[in-house]
Design goal:
The chain contains four helices and no strands. It is globular. α1 packs across α2 and α1 crosses α4. The chain is mostly helical. The two termini are 21 Å apart.
């Protein structure tokens, strides 16, 4: 399984956890185009924090190496992870770099 597939699986598992806390009509679909934050975002600030914590844990479980997504939450440039697809792409690059030892 590729790093991209592993990241996507971990992110989707984190979404599953967050979805358990949301009312049925507000659950987030596992679709690369879903907007997570900002205008038309699916998550409020608390939901975003819960998602980030869950995603960090799922990625640690999958790759056996820690990755900090918290820095992303604190940045003003949320466009880098505005959608699920963009987040998966960025995290894949981070994990590939860590796996290469860069």
């Amino acid at each position: 399984m590729s790093a991209e597939e592993r990241v996507r699986r971990a992110i989707f598992e984190a979404l599953d956890e967050v979805n358990l806390t949301l009312p049925e009509g507000e659950r987030i679909s596992k679709n690369a185009g879903v907007v997570l934050v900002g205008q038309d975002g699916s998550l409020d600030s608390l939901g975003l924090i819960n998602f980030v914590v869950a995603a960090e844990q799922k990625l640690l479980d999958e790759f056996k190496t820690a990755v900090s997504l918290t820095d992303l939450v604190m940045t003003q440039d949320q466009s880098r992870y505005r959608t699920i697809g963009a987040l998966c792409e960025m995290v894949t690059k981070m994990m590939e770099a860590q796996l290469r030892g860069a």
